[in-house]
Amino acid sequence: MLHELQPDLRELIDLTRQAENYDATMAAAQLAGKPIELGAGAADERRRKSLRIEQLRTKWNI
Question: How far apart are CA 36 and CA 8, in angstroms?
């Protein structure tokens, strides 16, 4: 089970870090009064990461 969990856990940690970094960057830019213009791809990628995070959390019940 540990061998199955490790890659998923690494992916979950990496995706969570990326999502938090993205969200913090967007919030900081907004607070600084210089909002970042999003391309359609950026919003879609953020949504994809959120869905994958939720899938992994559900899979391992965490």
Answer: 31
- Give me 8's structure tokens: 């998923």
Give me the pLDDT at residue 2, please: 83
The contacts of residue 30 (CB under 8 Å, 6+ apart) are: none
Residue type, 22: Y
Is residue 53 a contact partner of residue 12, using CB atoms and an 8 Å limit? yes
Question: DSSP alpha helices (H): ranges in 1-62?
Answer: 2-31, 40-59
pLDDT in tens, 2-61: 888 999 999 999 999 999 999 999 999 999 999 998 888 999 999 999 999 999 999 999
- Cα 56 to Cα 24: distance, rounded to the nearest angstrom: 22
